[in-house]
Amino acid sequence: MPELPEVEVVRAGLERHVVGATITQVEVLHPRPVRRHPTGPTGFVAELRGRTITAARRRGKYLWLPLDDGNAILGHLGMSGQLLVQPPEAPAERHLRVRIGLEGSDEGRELRFVDQRMFGGLSVSAGGAELPPEISHIARDPLDPEFDDDGFVRRVRRRGSGIKRQLLDQNLVSGVGNIYADEALWRSRLHGERPGERLTAGQVRALLGNAREVMSDALGQGGTSFDALYVNVNGESGYFDRSLHAYGREGEPCERCGTPIRRVAFMNRSSYFCPTCQPVPRRSSGRRRETPQPLPPVD
Ligand SMILES: [Zn+2]
After folding, report:
1. How far is 35 from 41, CA to CA, in rounded Å?
2. How close is the Cα of 250 to the center of ligand 1, in Å?
């Protein structure tokens, strides 16, 4: 699944290659990716034709392309979505779902939405150029210059829920996926079940700093593999093979203390942690630890 740094790489690519272009034609090859558009594929096509793309923006894992009429193309890559910029004569990708013809930026080209599993999609957000109302509830991400560090620390420490659950709560902070959460927790020597209300402000601040560091490392590495004309995201970058300390390393020695990394079930996915550096919190009276779940397949 694409995580925030990959989505940011896509946004930067769109900014370079489609801003200033005018939409000449739109073809919806499968209705599912435009299912969130209120007037269906026909309305989606009609509302886009002739419009000019004025910017490429992102909030969390959502991308939007503001248009010259005040609306925006709102997109989410879901589990397997890709946005590609291709010359029109390039052969159709196997899972090509939406084709948007462009002219005016350079030579003619197409913005293509390719998605095998189709959890992602595109819609036209009415009046969404500045910030689509559909996603206005989503919090800023830690890489956003306007992210409110003090507000984040305060809110985390008011809640009793586990710190990992809070890191993944899109109303609190967006874009920290499962992998980045596990890596930031490992660097911070915190177990994901530690309740926010029992962390110090310094611990939460350090955790936020580590999340930011993990994500910008990945962003730097994702950015270097970006091809000039090919806006692509496959869900995994080279970063994951080289720089992970906890995630995906079940049974391998912790790089700090040598204890084998453990994997436990967490919200239908997995959590990886070092049981020595990140001790499971003691159960406090009146609070139930989450019921153990069977392990999901390795993700
Ligand atoms: Zn360790």
Report:
1. 8
2. 12
**By C-alpha distance, which of 143, 197, 205 is closest to 174?**
143
C-alpha–C-alpha distance, residues 80 and 232, integer Å = 11
User: Active-site residues: which are they?
Assistant: 2-3, 61, 269
Distance 278 CA to ligand 1 centre (A): 7
Pairing state between β 96-103 and 22-28: antiparallel
Question: How far, in Å, is the centroid of ligand 1 from the Cα of 8?
Answer: 31
pLDDT digits (tens, 9 = 90+) for 210-226: 999 988 887 776 543 33
For residue 212, report the distance from its CA to the centre of ligand 1, in Å.
Answer: 21
Model confidence at 236: pLDDT above 50? no
| 261: Cβ contacts below 8 Å, ≥ 6 apart | 246, 249, 250, 251, 252, 253, 254, 272, 273, 274
Going from the Cα of 187 to the center of ligand 1, the distance in angstroms, rounded, reads 10
The answer to whether the predicted template modeling score (pTM) of the entire model surpasses 0.90 is no
8 A C-beta contact, residue 175 and residue 3: yes
Residues 6+ apart with CB under 8 A from 252: 260, 261
Mean pLDDT of 51-64: 94
Closest to 189 in 3D by CA, of 199, 197, 179? 199
pLDDT, tens only, 266-298:
988 899 999 999 999 987 544 555 566 667 776
Mean pLDDT of the chain: 87
- Which residues surround the ion ligand 1 when the cut-off is CB under 5 Å? 254, 256-257, 259, 274, 276-277
DSSP H or E segment with residue 62: strand 62-66
